[in-house]
Write a structure and sequence with these properties.
disordered C terminus; 8 strands; eight-stranded mixed beta sheet; single chain; alpha+beta; 35% helix; Alpha-Beta Plaits
Amino acid sequence: MRKSSLPHHLAALWFADIAGYSARVAEDEHGALQLVEILQALSRSTVQRYEGRVVKFFGDAVLAEFPSTEMAVRAAVVLSKQYTVQSAKTGRTHDLRIGVHLGDVAIDADGDLYGDGVNAAARIEAAVDPGQVVVSEDVWRLIRGREGFRFERLGNRNLKHSGATTAVAGESSRSCSAHSRRQVQS
């Protein structure tokens, strides 16, 4: 099937990557590879528990898709917390950077996702500081009043190579669930 005629659907997406991974590889390749193994194992179990799907792993990053924004954000917060704890087993604690977005995506026969929705999630993640879970304004609008969420507005951000500006909010995950984490800010 040609990529231009792929079916589309709306999806909640997140990109997560390991903060400080490149520096860790340069000084301790074995420890860095352990970090990737931890990310992959935790991502698989957490995404499944929150009714999502791991689309793919690339290096020290993961793209996941969810049927709801709430499940995507809850999964991101839990993954972030668990990863920080588990990464300490490699000799040094590392944090994730996670960007969450809701967008229209094209889905290939192999399950891969394409389109502006994927690009926006990746650009949000790229603007996140270590330890943060940051959501786009679209995600924030849908879940801002739901129980267990508390957000801090972080303002408008220019998304690299997209020509777009989006308002983002950091999820204060202390209030998100029993699987809480420290407040995230930009």
